[in-house]
Amino acid sequence: MGSMSAVVVAVLCAFAMHAGLLVTNAQLSPTFYNETCPTLNDIVFNVVSNASLTDPRIGASLLRLHFHDCFVQGCDGSVLLNNTDTIQSEQDAIPNLNSLRGLDVVNNIKTAVEDSCPETVSCADILAIAAEVGSVLGGGPSWDVLLGRRDSLNASQALANTSLPAPFFTIDQLNASFAAQGLNLTDLVTLSGAHTFGRARCSTFINRLYSFNNTGNPDPTLNTTYLATLQAICPQNATVDNITNLDLTTPDQFDNNYYSNLQQLNGLLQSDQELFSTTGADTVPLVNSFSADQTAFFANFVVSMIKMGNIGVLTGTDGEIRTQCNFVNANSSATLLLAGVASKVNLVAQSK
Ligand code: HEM
Ligand SMILES: *[C@@H]1O[C@H](CO)[C@@H](O)[C@H](O)[C@H]1NC(C)=O
Ligand SMILES: *[C@@H]1O[C@H](CO)[C@@H](O)[C@H](O)[C@H]1NC(C)=O
Ligand SMILES: *[C@@H]1O[C@H](CO)[C@@H](O)[C@H](O)[C@H]1NC(C)=O
Ligand SMILES: *[C@@H]1O[C@H](CO)[C@@H](O)[C@H](O)[C@H]1NC(C)=O
Ligand SMILES: *[C@@H]1O[C@H](CO)[C@@H](O)[C@H](O)[C@H]1NC(C)=O
Ligand SMILES: *[C@@H]1O[C@H](CO)[C@@H](O)[C@H](O)[C@H]1NC(C)=O
Ligand SMILES: *[C@@H]1O[C@H](CO)[C@@H](O)[C@H](O)[C@H]1NC(C)=O
Ligand SMILES: *[C@@H]1O[C@H](CO)[C@@H](O)[C@H](O)[C@H]1NC(C)=O
Ligand SMILES: *[C@@H]1O[C@H](CO)[C@@H](O)[C@H](O)[C@H]1NC(C)=O
Ligand SMILES: *[C@@H]1O[C@H](CO)[C@@H](O)[C@H](O)[C@H]1NC(C)=O
Ligand SMILES: *[C@@H]1O[C@H](CO)[C@@H](O)[C@H](O)[C@H]1NC(C)=O
Ligand SMILES: *[C@@H]1O[C@H](CO)[C@@H](O)[C@H](O)[C@H]1NC(C)=O
């Protein structure tokens, strides 16, 4: 290699490394809205805690909404976008259909935030704060939510179909799903602990109740007492998709009972029980340690939530601050830019 090209390569490498550092570090901050929306956290807390008075499940639903946002092209509010001529909503993807809750509460938060701080706070950041408030209202940990995300200009129903883990996934499939987001097995076990509150529909675990994996028998890793309870809630060939608590002991509390449930074969979803019942898996000792130590679970949960909240975020001048979370801004800069480019192309074409 000639010395000149070696220098060029070195400079390019240094630039790439610098750019890489910017991508991973120079982004979100807990004080992002300190000057521009100092009451943001209080506004979100007030709307969500008010909603929780009539809907004790809302904190869980909002936490899940942030997860379903982050795993699909990053934490960019894409899950909130409704169907339009150009958007195929993620809300209609298999993991979300008839399952997402809290979209109306997010809109109520946004309305209250726009009242105090117009055109300033992204919907993606509102989801991140609402998830933390959901944890706190359930008695779980609080943390300084990193902020400064911007909202996407599009959505991907295709990615929502493929990137979100399914409740019938094995440990290897769960590991692969999380690894694709830069999350490891510790994050998997920790974040699955969110199933310490909230509900699930029969359709998400009925595969375990009657003929698991085409064996003609129930899932052998399901506690037989719990099995009988669940079979009563979810009869075969039922016409109604009943719901039940993800945590049979403390349904609305954010605590570490999720892990002691797993130790007693009382995990609701196959994806939950796999973490403890897969012989020799690296997840088993983690389940045992979180079951024994709620403080350790909470500390890990904060770390993994912040890690998840950093996935694929848009910052700086990327994306936009939506004024209504269900729609991209009319005539946003991107739309104008595209329209402008298109008309210039047309003019050039016409002038030739
Ligand atoms: C590990 C892979 C995961 C799978 C397979 C999974 C699957 C599911 C399923 C099937 C439901 C029930 C949905 C319904 O029936 O409508 C559910 C509920 C829930 N999930 Fe997960 N989940 C996973 C990870 C997570 C993570 C990482 C979080 C958050 C950090 C989370 C938070 C929740 C919450 C809070 C609920 C209850 C929501 C409500 O009551 O509205 N889950 N999950
Ligand atoms: C932002 O506000 C918080 C809480 O009021 C305060 O602790 C922090 O010092 C402020 N940070 C900046 C950079 O202003
Ligand atoms: C509080 O919740 C009730 C419904 O439960 C709603 O009608 C009301 O507008 C909410 N108030 C605020 C300030 O969010
Ligand atoms: C967005 O779609 C949801 C259904 O997914 C609907 O309930 C809601 O009213 C729509 N929002 C708006 C602002 O049209
Ligand atoms: C959404 O926009 C991003 C950024 O412009 C782009 O990379 C991605 O391919 C788009 N996704 C869809 C489904 O159009
Ligand atoms: C997502 O899955 C649903 C249900 O299978 C299907 O109807 C829809 O076409 C899928 N969407 C995309 C974009 O692949
Ligand atoms: C989890 O997935 C990662 C990435 O694909 C892989 O390197 C690792 O070996 C997997 N771990 C286990 C325990 O399967
Ligand atoms: C399902 O059965 C197949 C063999 O038919 C087996 O390889 C696989 O491990 C089973 N899956 C579970 C989750 O038990
Ligand atoms: C459920 O439906 C299947 C066929 O669709 C039938 O073989 C089975 O007996 C039914 N089970 C019950 C409990 O009705
Ligand atoms: C579940 O749904 C069935 C109908 O499919 C209903 O008869 C039953 O009462 C429901 N059970 C519970 C516990 O909600
Ligand atoms: C099944 O669950 C009950 C509590 O609900 C527990 O006492 C029992 O030990 C569990 N059985 C097994 C095999 O873990
Ligand atoms: C997994 O991620 C956590 C942070 O969420 C980190 O502390 C831990 O070292 C990672 N584990 C491995 C094996 O990389
Ligand atoms: C967006 O621009 C189009 C064309 O210039 C115009 O017809 C429409 O009213 C604008 N919409 C909004 C919300 O400003």
From TrEMBL:
Q: What keywords are annotated for this sequence in UniProt?
A: Calcium, Disulfide bond, Glycoprotein, Heme, Hydrogen peroxide, Iron, Metal-binding, Oxidoreductase, Peroxidase, Secreted, Signal
Out of the domains of life, which is the source?
Eukaryota
BP GO terms, sorted? hydrogen peroxide catabolic process; response to oxidative stress
Query: By its UniProt entry, which InterPro entries does this protein fall under?
Result: Haem_peroxidase (IPR002016), Haem_peroxidase_sf (IPR010255), Peroxidase_pln (IPR000823), Peroxidases_AS (IPR019794), Peroxidases_heam-ligand_BS (IPR019793), Secretory_peroxidase (IPR033905)
Record-listed Ca(2+) 2 binding positions = 196, 247, 250, 255
Catalytic site: 68
- The residue range of the signal peptide is 1-26
Short name of one Pfam family: peroxidase
Which cysteine pairs make disulfide bonds?
37-117, 70-75, 123-325, 202-234
Where does the chain bind Ca(2+) 1? 69, 72, 74, 76, 78, 90
Note the SUPFAM superfamilies from the entry: Heme-dependent peroxidases (SSF48113)
Residue stretches making up the Plant heme peroxidase family profile domain: 27-329
Q: Where in the cell?
A: Secreted
Cellular component GO terms, alphabetical: extracellular region
What biological function has been recorded for the protein in this entry?
Removal of H(2)O(2), oxidation of toxic reductants, biosynthesis and degradation of lignin, suberization, auxin catabolism, response to environmental stresses such as wounding, pathogen attack and oxidative stress. These functions might be dependent on each isozyme/isoform in each plant tissue.
Q: Which family does it belong to?
A: Belongs to the peroxidase family. Ascorbate peroxidase subfamily.
Mind telling me what this protein is named?
Peroxidase
Species this chain originates from: Vigna unguiculata
